[in-house]
Known about the structure:
Helix 2 packs across helix 3. This protein starts with a strand and ends in a 7-residue tail after the last strand. By secondary structure, the protein is α+β, with helices and mostly antiparallel strands. 32% of the residues lie in helices and 38% in strands. The protein is built from five helices and ten strands. Strands 1, 7, 8, 9 and 10 form a five-stranded antiparallel β-sheet that branches. A five-stranded antiparallel β-sheet has the order 2-3-6-4-5, sandwiched between helices. The relative contact order is 0.18.
Amino acid sequence: MQERYRTVAREGVHEIEISKSRFLCSLAPAATEQEAQDFIRRVRGEHPTATHNCYAYVIGADGRVQKASDDGEPGGTAGVPMLQMLLRREVRYVVAVVTRYYGGVKLGAGGLIRAYGGVVGEALDALGTVTRERFRLATVTVGHERAGRLENDLRATGRAVREVRYAEAVTIELGLPDADVDAFRAWLADATAGTATLELGGEAYQDAPGGRPA
């Protein structure tokens, strides 16, 4: 798995006008190809009278799924430059739909390529990106008498606490970089006098420290 990847910070729309044509770039994070396709359908439904609704998306931290559509524009002048912009900016798990309302002035192949790729780049700048890194899911189980202080210590040391559940014992779910697992296990034993247990789960991605919108 990739150690980290960059994606768009939030869903949003950025619009530009070129030679009387309106270009609206709708961007969104997409965890799966199905989510990307659902977003494309939604945007098309919001703009049923648009001249074109072209799209591109990249799914997977390694960019393994890449799709693009010109939606009636001359071949290679819309979806491909949109996809190339996403790849050039190294964003993943992202979908872009550029809606064009034709203004009566033809742009030519070069003009279309610049317009479609350019509005995607401007949208990424406007909405910002976040960096996400791979981590291991971990569950700490501890008695009630130590739970409050342990949770505070975890947060104070910058650990990614995801959920805290109270039952007969207290379970704290958090994310750990693989490289930190052994050191964390030793720290936990020391912090709880050996009374807490640590169970490791699968892998996922979360926002990297300092990886907030830029």
